[in-house]
Amino acid sequence: MPPLPPTSRRAVVGVGAVTLVPLVAGSLAGCEAPDLGDLADRVTGDDPSAAASPTPAPDPQADEALLDEVVAGLAADLALVAAVRVRHPRLRDALDPLEQVHVTHLAALEGEQQGPSAPPTADAAAALGLVRRRAAAAQRRLVDQAVRADSGELAQLLASMAAAVAQQLVVLPRRPGAGR
Length: 180
Prior knowledge:
Region (Disordered): 39-61
CATH architecture of the domain at 60-180: Up-down Bundle
Strand content: under 5%
CATH class of the domain at 60-180: Mainly Alpha
Shape: elongated
Protein name: DUF4439 domain-containing protein
Order of helices and strands: HHHHHH
Largest sheet: none
Protein backbone atom coordinates (compact mmCIF):
# COMPACT_ATOMS: atom_id res chain seq x y z
CA MET A 1 0.00 0.00 0.00
CA PRO A 2 1.50 3.37 -0.96
CA PRO A 3 1.94 5.89 1.87
CA LEU A 4 -0.86 8.38 2.33
CA PRO A 5 -0.13 11.97 1.36
CA PRO A 6 0.44 14.32 4.28
CA THR A 7 -2.69 15.83 5.77
CA SER A 8 -3.10 19.53 5.13
CA ARG A 9 -3.14 21.99 8.00
CA ARG A 10 -6.59 23.13 6.87
CA ALA A 11 -7.97 19.57 7.18
CA VAL A 12 -6.46 19.12 10.65
CA VAL A 13 -7.79 22.47 11.88
CA GLY A 14 -11.20 21.82 10.31
CA VAL A 15 -11.57 18.40 11.88
CA GLY A 16 -10.29 19.80 15.20
CA ALA A 17 -12.90 22.54 15.18
CA VAL A 18 -15.68 20.14 14.22
CA THR A 19 -14.79 17.62 16.91
CA LEU A 20 -14.94 20.25 19.66
CA VAL A 21 -18.73 20.28 19.45
CA PRO A 22 -19.14 16.63 20.49
CA LEU A 23 -16.39 16.94 23.08
CA VAL A 24 -18.15 19.87 24.69
CA ALA A 25 -21.40 17.92 24.55
CA GLY A 26 -19.63 15.20 26.49
CA SER A 27 -19.45 12.49 23.87
CA LEU A 28 -17.25 11.43 21.04
CA ALA A 29 -18.32 7.81 20.96
CA GLY A 30 -18.66 7.34 17.20
CA CYS A 31 -22.25 6.66 16.35
CA GLU A 32 -23.07 4.74 19.48
CA ALA A 33 -24.46 6.49 22.51
CA PRO A 34 -25.11 4.43 25.62
CA ASP A 35 -28.14 2.12 25.33
CA LEU A 36 -29.86 3.67 22.33
CA GLY A 37 -32.02 0.64 21.68
CA ASP A 38 -35.03 2.39 23.16
CA LEU A 39 -34.20 5.95 22.06
CA ALA A 40 -37.45 6.23 20.11
CA ASP A 41 -39.44 5.26 23.23
CA ARG A 42 -37.65 7.85 25.34
CA VAL A 43 -38.05 10.58 22.72
CA THR A 44 -41.77 9.90 22.41
CA GLY A 45 -42.22 9.64 26.17
CA ASP A 46 -43.09 5.91 26.23
CA ASP A 47 -40.26 5.06 28.67
CA PRO A 48 -41.76 4.16 32.08
CA SER A 49 -38.48 4.84 33.91
CA ALA A 50 -38.50 8.45 32.71
CA ALA A 51 -41.36 9.30 35.12
CA ALA A 52 -39.18 8.46 38.13
CA SER A 53 -36.46 10.91 37.06
CA PRO A 54 -36.04 13.93 39.37
CA THR A 55 -34.93 16.19 36.49
CA PRO A 56 -37.51 17.80 34.24
CA ALA A 57 -38.35 15.58 31.30
CA PRO A 58 -37.49 16.77 27.80
CA ASP A 59 -40.37 17.82 25.59
CA PRO A 60 -41.28 14.61 23.69
CA GLN A 61 -43.09 16.43 20.89
CA ALA A 62 -40.12 18.71 20.21
CA ASP A 63 -37.68 15.81 20.00
CA GLU A 64 -40.11 13.69 18.00
CA ALA A 65 -40.45 16.46 15.39
CA LEU A 66 -36.68 16.94 15.43
CA LEU A 67 -36.14 13.21 14.98
CA ASP A 68 -38.46 13.22 11.95
CA GLU A 69 -36.48 16.16 10.52
CA VAL A 70 -33.16 14.38 11.09
CA VAL A 71 -34.37 11.15 9.49
CA ALA A 72 -35.75 12.99 6.44
CA GLY A 73 -32.47 14.84 5.93
CA LEU A 74 -30.33 11.72 6.32
CA ALA A 75 -32.59 9.72 3.98
CA ALA A 76 -32.30 12.43 1.30
CA ASP A 77 -28.51 12.59 1.74
CA LEU A 78 -28.27 8.81 1.44
CA ALA A 79 -30.47 8.79 -1.68
CA LEU A 80 -28.16 11.31 -3.37
CA VAL A 81 -24.99 9.37 -2.53
CA ALA A 82 -26.59 6.11 -3.70
CA ALA A 83 -27.70 7.70 -6.97
CA VAL A 84 -24.25 9.15 -7.67
CA ARG A 85 -22.63 5.77 -6.93
CA VAL A 86 -24.99 4.08 -9.42
CA ARG A 87 -24.51 6.73 -12.13
CA HIS A 88 -20.73 7.13 -11.75
CA PRO A 89 -18.97 3.76 -11.31
CA ARG A 90 -15.56 5.36 -10.80
CA LEU A 91 -16.89 7.16 -7.69
CA ARG A 92 -18.28 4.00 -6.07
CA ASP A 93 -15.25 3.19 -3.94
CA ALA A 94 -14.74 6.80 -2.85
CA LEU A 95 -18.39 7.25 -1.83
CA ASP A 96 -18.90 3.86 -0.17
CA PRO A 97 -17.73 4.96 3.32
CA LEU A 98 -20.01 8.03 3.27
CA GLU A 99 -22.92 5.88 2.14
CA GLN A 100 -22.25 3.40 4.96
CA VAL A 101 -22.14 6.24 7.51
CA HIS A 102 -25.57 7.45 6.34
CA VAL A 103 -26.96 3.89 6.43
CA THR A 104 -25.64 3.41 9.98
CA HIS A 105 -27.09 6.74 11.12
CA LEU A 106 -30.53 5.95 9.69
CA ALA A 107 -30.47 2.53 11.35
CA ALA A 108 -29.57 4.11 14.71
CA LEU A 109 -32.62 6.36 14.39
CA GLU A 110 -34.82 3.55 13.04
CA GLY A 111 -35.37 5.60 9.88
CA GLU A 112 -36.50 4.32 6.50
CA GLN A 113 -34.22 4.52 3.48
CA GLN A 114 -35.48 6.05 0.25
CA GLY A 115 -34.59 4.67 -3.14
CA PRO A 116 -31.77 6.41 -5.00
CA SER A 117 -32.71 9.87 -6.21
CA ALA A 118 -32.25 10.88 -9.81
CA PRO A 119 -28.58 11.70 -10.36
CA PRO A 120 -28.23 15.42 -10.83
CA THR A 121 -25.60 15.38 -13.59
CA ALA A 122 -23.77 13.13 -16.01
CA ASP A 123 -20.48 14.82 -15.08
CA ALA A 124 -18.69 12.85 -12.34
CA ALA A 125 -16.76 15.89 -11.08
CA ALA A 126 -19.94 17.95 -10.74
CA ALA A 127 -21.74 15.05 -9.03
CA LEU A 128 -18.86 14.62 -6.57
CA GLY A 129 -18.90 18.36 -5.88
CA LEU A 130 -22.63 18.17 -5.16
CA VAL A 131 -22.11 15.24 -2.78
CA ARG A 132 -19.36 17.18 -0.96
CA ARG A 133 -21.57 20.27 -0.62
CA ARG A 134 -24.54 18.21 0.60
CA ALA A 135 -22.34 16.34 3.10
CA ALA A 136 -20.97 19.64 4.44
CA ALA A 137 -24.54 20.96 4.74
CA ALA A 138 -25.59 17.72 6.47
CA GLN A 139 -22.75 18.06 8.96
CA ARG A 140 -23.77 21.64 9.81
CA ARG A 141 -27.43 20.60 9.99
CA LEU A 142 -26.63 17.76 12.43
CA VAL A 143 -24.67 20.15 14.65
CA ASP A 144 -27.63 22.54 14.69
CA GLN A 145 -30.04 19.70 15.41
CA ALA A 146 -27.84 18.45 18.26
CA VAL A 147 -28.01 21.87 19.85
CA ARG A 148 -31.81 21.98 19.44
CA ALA A 149 -32.41 18.51 20.95
CA ASP A 150 -34.07 18.49 24.37
CA SER A 151 -32.86 14.98 25.17
CA GLY A 152 -29.21 14.84 26.15
CA GLU A 153 -28.83 11.37 24.64
CA LEU A 154 -30.30 12.51 21.32
CA ALA A 155 -28.03 15.56 21.36
CA GLN A 156 -24.99 13.34 21.93
CA LEU A 157 -26.01 10.99 19.15
CA LEU A 158 -26.56 13.83 16.67
CA ALA A 159 -23.25 15.46 17.63
CA SER A 160 -21.42 12.19 17.04
CA MET A 161 -23.18 11.82 13.69
CA ALA A 162 -22.01 15.32 12.74
CA ALA A 163 -18.46 14.33 13.66
CA ALA A 164 -18.68 11.16 11.57
CA VAL A 165 -19.85 13.11 8.51
CA ALA A 166 -17.06 15.65 9.06
CA GLN A 167 -14.52 12.82 9.13
CA GLN A 168 -15.88 11.48 5.85
CA LEU A 169 -15.58 14.93 4.28
CA VAL A 170 -11.88 15.02 5.15
CA VAL A 171 -11.18 11.76 3.31
CA LEU A 172 -13.59 12.31 0.42
CA PRO A 173 -11.68 13.20 -2.75
CA ARG A 174 -12.13 16.64 -4.22
CA ARG A 175 -12.19 15.30 -7.79
CA PRO A 176 -12.82 11.87 -9.33
CA GLY A 177 -9.76 9.66 -9.26
CA ALA A 178 -7.90 11.91 -6.80
CA GLY A 179 -6.75 11.03 -3.31
CA ARG A 180 -8.07 13.84 -1.10
